[in-house]
Structure formats: C-alpha cells, structure tokens
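FORM 12-B: Structure-to-Sequence Request
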C-alpha cells in the first residue's frame, strides 16, 4: 500500500527517534571531522606559511591576505601540495562518512522492516539499534556507498560546469573590457548558484534513495543508483516533498542556533565587546553543539523516511 507523504515522514521520524544511537554516532562524526580538519589545515598550511615567511597572526588586513595569495601563486609547487592535501583529506572524509552512512541505513531499513507495514503503533517497535548491527552494515556497505557518493556528486559537478565554462570563455574574450568581465562574472555566478541549489537537492535525493536501495537489495553502486533514479522518477512527488520538508526544517533549525553566534554584536553596542565575548563563549559553544545534534537528527530522519519508501516498494 502506498503511504501518504505525512505517514512516510512520521514513519521516518519515529524510526530516527527510536534509534537515537545513530544520532549520537553522527554527532561524533561531525566532531571528529572538525578536529581532523583543524589538524590537517595546520599540518598543510602552517609549514607553507613559514616557508614563505608569513605567520597566521600577520593576516589581519586584506592587503596582507593579498600578499599571501601572490606569494603562493609565485610558488606553484606549494599550490600543488595544497591541492593534493585537500584532495586526500576530502577522500578520507567521504570514506569515513560512507562507513557511517552504511551502518545507519542498515539500522534504518531493518527497523522499518521489523516495525511492519502498519501505520499506527508504538514508537518502540522501531527500536533495533545496536553497535554490532551498525558495524555489520558499515563494514558490509561502506565501499558501495563510497562509490555512490563519488559517482553521483561527480555528475553533479559536471552539470555545474555548464554555466561556468561559457562564463570563463566570455570573460577571457572580454578581458580588455572590465565592465563586460564584471557583468559576465556576476551573471554567471548567479546562474551557477541557482543551478547549484537545484542540483544539490536532486543529487541528495538520488544518493539517499540509492543508499536506501542498497540496504534493501544489497546491490552494487551502479544498480543502486539506476534503481534509485527510476524510483524517484516514478514517485517524484513524495521524494521531492520529503526532501524539501527536511531541507526547510534543517534551515530553520540551523538559523535558530546560529543566531546565538551573533551575540557579540550586543558587546559592540555596549562598548564592551571583549568582556561580552568572553562570557558568551559557553552559550555559543552549547548552541554549536545543539546545532550539530539537530543536524544529525534531521539527517537521520531524512534517511529513515527514504528507507521507508525503499522498503515499501519491495514489500
């Protein structure tokens, strides 16, 4: 039986809340990524800055930052080192996230199956989370999920080149006319940003449904992506509304928690910025952690809702 959008969202919500351990794992993932990114940035950038005689404390003005960029451009080997370092870091992040996501989707799909097709029922019927179950799914599917992400987002990046390449060509042709360069750049950037939003939502739907299909069928990356695309086209309404609903809720929650980061503005109004910033640090830190927790919850809800769609199709 085909469920309504509301029933599917509620089913995903109950699944996400009942298996709250997945939210904790996602929070740990975000914290680990933040620490790794900070450490990697220091390991990659600090030696380069030292080699060209620049310290981080020197980057206080736009002129100093411009000087840094000019110094880097004159040393192209350093740029290659930065590119390689960032690329390796991104691959590690994708691989780790694929590991986490594979375990989460295994739990979400198992929970939806065990809960049964009934619309009504206690939330506890979805509670199946355990570390062995999560680890089994993570080990079994991380490689497939890794390639699902790489292929789908690779296609998305190629689509984004559609407005960028003509923009770059036109700017090169009109390089002797500053006004034309500025106008072309602004138009190209606006078109690219609008396309980025659409492509981002569609690709997120595609990858999330493909990951859910993998957990249901244990298929390969190409089969999961092909099946996911066919499912989205045949049932676009539910997939799209669920994705948009989750995006809107995520943006609203992030905006609420991010508002605490602007508390320093009150310090400027009271001419006590340093003192106010010091005492507002705990509040902003707690708000950041709550924002991460909320994002982890929304992500689990989104995946669980798509898992419900995948299980429904096979039942």
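FORM 12-B RESPONSE
SEQUENCE OUT:
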């Amino acid at each position: 039986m085909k469920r309504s959008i509301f029933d599917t969202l509620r089913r995903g919500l109950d699944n996400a809340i009942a298996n709250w351990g997945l939210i904790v794992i996602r929070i740990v993932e975000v914290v680990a990524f933040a620490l790794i990114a900070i450490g990697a940035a220091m390991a990659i950038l600090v030696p380069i800055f030292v080699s060209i005689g620049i310290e981080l404390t020197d980057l206080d003005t736009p002129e100093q930052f411009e000087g840094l960029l000019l110094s880097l451009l004159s040393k192209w080997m350093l740029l290659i080192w930065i590119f390689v370092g960032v690329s390796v870091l991104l691959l590690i992040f994708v691989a780790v996230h694929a590991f986490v996501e594979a375990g989460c989707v295994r739990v979400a799909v198992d929970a939806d199956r065990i809960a049964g097709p009934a619309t009504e029922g206690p939330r506890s019927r979805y509670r199946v989370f355990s570390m062995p179950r999560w680890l089994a799914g993570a080990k079994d599917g991380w490689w497939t999920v890794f390639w699902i992400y790489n292929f789908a987002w690779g296609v998305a990046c190629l689509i984004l080149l559609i407005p960028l390449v003509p923009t770059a060509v036109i700017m090169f042709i009109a390089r002797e006319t500053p006004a034309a360069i500025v106008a072309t750049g602004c138009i190209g950037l606006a078109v690219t940003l609008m396309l980025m939003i659409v492509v981002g939502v569609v690709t997120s739907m595609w990858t999330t449904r493909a990951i859910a299909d993998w957990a249901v069928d244990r298929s390969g990356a190409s089969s999961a992506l092909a099946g996911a695309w066919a499912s989205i086209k045949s049932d676009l309404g539910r997939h799209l509304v669920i994705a948009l609903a989750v995006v809107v809720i995520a943006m609203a929650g992030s905006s609420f928690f991010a508002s605490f980061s602007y508390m320093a503005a009150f310090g400027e109004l009271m001419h006590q910025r340093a003192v106010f910033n010091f005492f507002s640090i705990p509040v902003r830190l707690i708000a950041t952690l709550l924002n991460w927790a909320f994002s982890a919850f929304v992500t689990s809800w989104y995946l669980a809702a798509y898992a419900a769609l995948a299980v429904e199709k096979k039942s």
